[in-house]
């Protein structure tokens, strides 16, 4: 394979992933259920690790990412070469003591017989007509799945629990593409819990309104950010890699939501996505919303879910049928990134954008979580 040009090798890799997809049930059937596709997933493994100098943590935290490159712009972007993809999926790890490393990766496709390498300023808006967001109140909702999987970052964004000690969020919540934002070295993750008042029993209720909640904070042990984000920016390939994984210093003991490969928009139940986040115009409230997907590229979902800064980093999820276990299951298929203003044929168009979890990103994020590619064979 060494003699095959990088672009051809990448095309072969993507073709194999498409051919391996099974379980793509057509919605034209009378008894159709939106079913999770099964994929022959690639493997992403560390090849070498380099120690880097400590960062200065000087960037200002931004709660959203803006880009003028819309769906057609992204669709027209040249396909990256195999070597470029390896660079984008290599990653930087930041530790609580301020040290950091850069890890180069290899991409492989495992088969039955072995392995193969494989300018204008405009007023932005994120509320579209009638505000369709729902604030979630009361511990009976906030502390129960799936709302309990949403957590708040001390930098102001939202994250989602994806394992006993891992949180998935947007890369821009901790890194501006050049350096880490202020407060990242002492990054904390907040879990909503009821306030306990003196002299009141655990089962007592207040006639004054919903029970007050507060955040319990857990420190972050280390973070992973793909080099595709660090080397890029919001106007080119960078937005495709706006995701990061946080590892907590201790277990959180809550139910978490698994990640999954993003199906095509036409296979999503009703063509809709869901996510919950801590929008900064409703301080202290967890805000839930759902909406239709308007357009998509290989790496991004374009939608008009009502959202405000602070919701960035929320896990975008759908509920689909899991054929093997014969049950419905929610999985995170993307990460809410932010707002885009797009000039489409001279007509203004707003989008909110989510980064899709592709087979390659699934393999990477799963390896960060599991530490063993054998546990990442089902997407």
From TrEMBL:
Compartment list: Secreted
Predominant place of localization: secreted
SUPFAM superfamilies associated with the record: Trypsin-like serine proteases
This protein's record includes keyword Lipid metabolism: no
Keywords: Disulfide bond, Glycoprotein, Hydrolase, Protease, Secreted, Serine protease, Signal
Domain Peptidase S1 positions: 145-285
Gene3D superfamilies associated with the record: Trypsin-like serine proteases
Secretion signal span: 1-23
Signal in keyword set: yes
Family per record: Belongs to the peptidase S1 family.
Protein name, entry field: Serine protease 23
Organism: Pipistrellus nathusii
